[in-house]
Model the fold of this input.
Amino acid sequence: MPFIIEKLQQEHREFREFLSLLDAQLDKFRRGRAPNYELIDALLDFFTSFPDEWHHQKEDLVYDAVIVKAGPMTDSLTNLRAEHERLETGARGFENRMAHLRRGSDLPMSEIVTSGETYGRLLRHHMVKEDQVFFPIAEKILCDEDWQAIDTQIGAQRENPAQVDKMLRIRSVAEAISEIATE
Done:
């Protein structure tokens, strides 16, 4: 298995772990109990940053390489980029609802819970599609030279000082999530 696919799948595992934490907080909302707002804020920071600023960029590099070679097989993959945009919109929508709540809005709790659940469902469905359809197709279609070219592009992005700063911040957010969750 190419390293980039292993890394993307590892990131999916982290997303699932963090979604489970979000589910637990949404369940508290649903039952009328106070959630851990610090944890929700950190999760939202992660979900509105990491996927769009790094994870999806890597997937898009693989996607571009697959589309060049896939020909008629691309029908099952055409929605992946649009899904990335829907995921960003969903995360931002949930973040906005939480911000309204924190400012004292009378937004119905059911709307907040539904927004968070919808985002979680969309992300989980998207990851299953990538793990079970997209990544196997990429592994089948792309050759060693393609993977090397993708690794080179990712390496160049990783060396960009602005990207380094983003990644350090996002990693610190992920560590904070883990710490808050274990308190």
